[in-house]
Amino acid sequence: MMILLSILFFVINLSTIFKGSLFSETSRILKLLEIEQIQNNETLEKRNMDYLKAGCLPLIGALVYIIVEITFLINAFNYDNAKYPTLFIVMFLLLSLVVGFSKKNINKMNEEELVATKFKILSSKKVSLKSIIRGLVWTTYYGYMIYVIVI
Questions:
Q1: What is the model's pLDDT at position 144?
Q2: What gap in Å lies between CA 86 and CA 47, rounded to an integer?
Q3: CA 27, CA 57: separation in Å to the nearest integer?
Q4: Quick check: 54 and 30 in contact, CB under 8 A?
Q5: What's the CA gap between 138 and 86, in Å, rounded?
Q6: What is the value of pTM for the model shown?
Q7: What is the predicted pLDDT for the residue at 106?
Q8: What are φ and ψ of residue 105, in 5° steps?
Q9: 61 vs 29, 30, 80, 128, CA distance in Å?
Q10: Is residue 28's pLDDT more than 90?
């Protein structure tokens, strides 16, 4: 099972180098939707319904993906003799999650910040230097795990 997941994660992360993050488009859509709803002063009930329509299945997929990946990383310590690459990637994952959750809340932005954030989201590319580096790090790790598990 570990070899199958290693190959699957390797292929997924290799594709993110060229196509961008797996759930980036869903994230963009939800952020734009939230900004538009705040600017239009829509009710919380309408917001929740729109979020449910726009991103429910992709967000469930992202949650399942992260749970499977964390389970894989926990089990990877049993296969990795050096332990340092797996420890590094776990720290990398935790750092990525902390940075992701520490971004400024859109609800607390003023009108100028909302417009600037909306423009930034609309003008951003699918593939950025950050996504390429992240993809390379993860692809290298999963390639390493394939090597460790097979040999």
A1: 95
A2: 40
A3: 12
A4: yes
A5: 11
A6: 0.80
A7: 67
A8: -70, 130
A9: 16, 15, 27, 23
A10: no
Q: Are 79 and 47 in contact (CB under 8 A)?
A: no
Those residues whose C-beta lies under 8 Å from the C-beta of residue 76, and which sit 6 or more positions away, are 2, 86, 145
Written as one string, the DSSP assignment of the chain is -HHHHHHHHHHHHHHHHHH--TTHHHHHHHHHHHHHHHHTT--HHHHHHHHHHHHHHHHHHHHHHHHHHHHHHHHHHHH-SS-HHHHHHHHHHHHHHHHHHTSPPGGG--HHHHHHHHHHHHH--SS-HHHHHHHHHHHHHHHHHHHHHH-
**In one letter, which amino acid is 46?**
K
Burial class (CB in 10 A: 0-12, 13-18, 19+), 40: exposed
What are 123's two structure tokens? 């003008």
The rounded distance, in Å, linking the Cα atoms of 43 and 79 is 51
Q: What is the pLDDT of residue 90?
A: 93
| Average pLDDT over every residue of 74-80 | 91
Distance from C-alpha of 40 to C-alpha of 134, rounded to nearest angstrom: 35
